[in-house]
Amino acid sequence: MADQLGTLLRRLRKQSGLTQERLAERSGVSVSTIRRLETGSSRDHRLGTLSLLADALEVGPEEHRQLLATRATTQSDPDRIPPEPVTVPPARVAGVLDPTAAQRQQPPTPDRAAPPILSAAADELAIEVRRRWQREEEHRRVHDPFPLPVRWQEAPAFLTDHSENIQRLPPGATSYATDLTGDLGSVAEVYRRISSGRLVVLGRAGSGKSILTIRFVLDFLKTRAPGDRVPVIFTLGSWDPTTVALRDWLIDRLVRDHPHLARTAPGGATLAAALVDADLVLPVLDGFDETAESMRCATLQALNGTSLPLLLTSRADEFAKAVKAVHAPLVWAAGIQLSDLTRDNLLAYLPRTARPIASGDGHGRTGAVWDFVLAQLAREETEASVNLAGVLSTPLMVALARTMYSETPDRDTAELLDTERFPAEHSLEEHLLAGFVPTVYRRSLPERAVGRRRPRKRNWDPEHAERWLAYLAHHMVRLKRQDLAWWRISESLRRSTRVMIVVAVSALCAAAADGLSTLLLHQATFGRALVRAAFTGSIAGLTVGSVYAIMIALGNEIIEPAPVRLRLPGTGASLSRRTARTFIARFGTALLGGFVLGVGNGCSRAVQGTLYRDLPLPNGEVIESILIDMLVFELIFGVGGGLVFGLLALFEAPLDAASAATPVSLLASNRATVSRQVLFLAPMLTLTVVFGGSLIAHLFQGFLEPSAWGVSDGLRAGAVYGFAGSLTYALLFTAWGQWVVFSRIWLPLTGKLPWDTGVFLDDAYHKGVLRQVGAVYQFRHVRLQHHLGRSFLRRRATYAPARFGRKTPVS
């Protein structure tokens, strides 16, 4: 009966000295499931769940058997809901394979049904993931003319766990052989044969691991039932396991790439957090080898500390080094290793990539571009043919060769067999990597519609385009990053340069606002208005620059786009933990800004008093004036501005589910949100300063001079603060604003990027140089990124940027 299980489990847990929370942490089973098992309210528990608990409790063989036996006892309960059939793995006799039993094994499923709201959110996520990766697979032309035959064999035994652990068998049970052979079209089926739901995919650079993950996601979703896990691809290189837990990182990536998951779920957490906690997300972790070398051991250890079903890809050598260093593979994980393409694969594939071309007699010849080279590959074993066959043994190099030769008929493929130019495989690979970007920018590719949007056509000069891409690649390599996020391009500049730009922009905003208000409200002369504007701009620039420098010191200089839109209260905006956190963060920043502004204004007035009233700086009157100014400015600009900026969070609501994040759409939505924020902030800040200043002047009338805050002074201060404050916030403290200031103005001004950087990146994506992974770009392959990064360093000594980032049309 169920109460027998609860009594036994409770006794074993107490013998082990574990709390329910500690047992949940060690076993990977949720606390709620353990509680239901111990109280007898769970009448449909799985054998795998009991196995996990027994392993975590470290019980003996007899107690392990008793715990598993309680499941059979509860099956006789008439009130019990019949579970899915579970096949106990048969013994393998003399190595005989039982493929029927192996295929009946399924990866572990969630312990209980998810609430309807989470099931609906998971189904929405599944639709969005399928749409995104289907579009990406089409963009990468995987099926044109047909998918390359990506095949594999089982990974070496020392890189995988024991078969008994992979199959999640109890002590004493005998493992059986699991068939892991297959090809690109059967990867999801192979994964479903693995009882633990953990698979490592190994292969050398360019062997097709990323394409395999896309195909896995699409095939897995075809047979996904409502409420099951949703496979989501995560680029592992952006995770630092020493500072961020896996759960938190997964949630952060989900919200970035699927902004609608920032909505609040029952219990107060975001939908992204609720989906991860409910075990409704299947992480597909791409690029273990792209994590920093010093982080790989910590990454593997962190993954071993979880029981999440997952799929992990890596280059074999890097994964093997990490396994040896931690003395353990990925626990419970099976492994496959991708095979090289053969010459027969090349003979079948390359001719069909070259469309009919016109010959000298006016007739078309299909595949003639590759005739000579393929004949050499098929006919004889020469040094040139061996080198070329070795290079073209990976899908990446085949794709580069196809771009350079199949789609550019004026190039002669025979040069690939020139051993003087290319004496080794490495030189051939560098030739293909170096020629890819100039090739795609020299020719005019037929535009392919991707989604509903077609890119604006640009004919960028190949030399300039390669230089701009090399700058971005070098910046990414230097920071050991694979994601090219438009809001993080500013990191390519030194921090000191960013602070100086922030000072200049904030000073210009304040000076323009002060000069106009002085001319209009005080009817002052242009010269006097210019002097006051310069004075006000200097104070504002130093104030904002100081706040920005403090943010950098605290590690908060990179501002990510908030997944929100502005709505009226009651039409989508609501109170939540995110709203409270946003309010506190903005209020604190405004308080800091008011304090710095008060200090700066007090000191400036002291300097004026010294210059115009002959007051010595240590004078008590001067010190008193500084302290009063600090208090007044903190109350007016700090508290008042903090309330306005904080209350803005009440009008923010998560993006709709239909607003799937791509780099272009995220930039557009962030621009629209910032525009609405300015329309709200400018009048509200003005009114706050005008009325708040009058109130403060009344309260401090015994300390302030009678003319310190008159009507005209209040109006001028309110206008300056409203206009300059909202504009400064929009340009310097939002993701879109920093993109405009740094990536659309400063970097193009210095020739490091084109003026229309957004269009350039989108065009590079449509040309196949970049790829989209959710809300960010990545280079087509990390080898291309590193090649371009090295080319930037080679040019650096003689680097001569194009003047003003000018693009030269290609005829």
Explained architecture:
With 811 residues, the chain is mostly helical. The chain has four domains: 2-86, 434 Repressor (Amino-terminal Domain); 116-338, Rossmann fold (3-Layer(aba) Sandwich); 343-358 and 367-442, no CATH class; 495-740, no CATH class. Strands 1-6-2-5-4-3 form a six-stranded mixed β-sheet. Strands 7-8 form a two-stranded antiparallel sheet. It has a two-stranded antiparallel ribbon with strand order 9-10. It is flat, with a radius of gyration of 32 Å. It starts with a helix and ends in a 15-residue tail after the last helix. Residues 72-105, 359-365, 445-455 and 801-811 have low confidence and may be disordered.
How many helical elements?
29
Secondary-structure content class: mainly alpha
**Rg over CA atoms:** 32 Å
Query: Which strand order does the major sheet show?
Result: 1-6-2-5-4-3
Mean pLDDT across all amino acids = 77
Distance between the termini: 81 Å
User: Judging from the principal axes of the Cα atoms, what is the shape?
Assistant: flat
Q: What is the subunit organization of this protein?
A: single chain
Q: How much strand?
A: 5-15%
List the helices and strands and how they pair.
Elements: H1 2-15, H2 20-27, H3 31-39, H4 47-57, H5 61-74, H6 99-104, H7 116-139, E1 152-154, H8 163-166, H9 187-192, E2 198-202, H10 209-222, E3 230-235, H11 246-257, H12 271-277, E4 281-286, H13 296-304, E5 310-314, H14 316-326, E6 334-338, H15 343-353, E7 357-358, E8 364-365, H16 371-379, H17 383-391, H18 395-406, H19 425-442, H20 462-478, H21 495-521, H22 526-553, E9 564-566, H23 577-612, H24 620-647, E10 652-654, H25 663-699, H26 711-732, H27 735-749, H28 757-766, E11 770-773, E12 776-779, H29 782-796
Parallel strand pairs: 2-5, 2-6, 3-4, 4-5
Antiparallel strand pairs: 1-6, 7-8, 9-10, 11-12
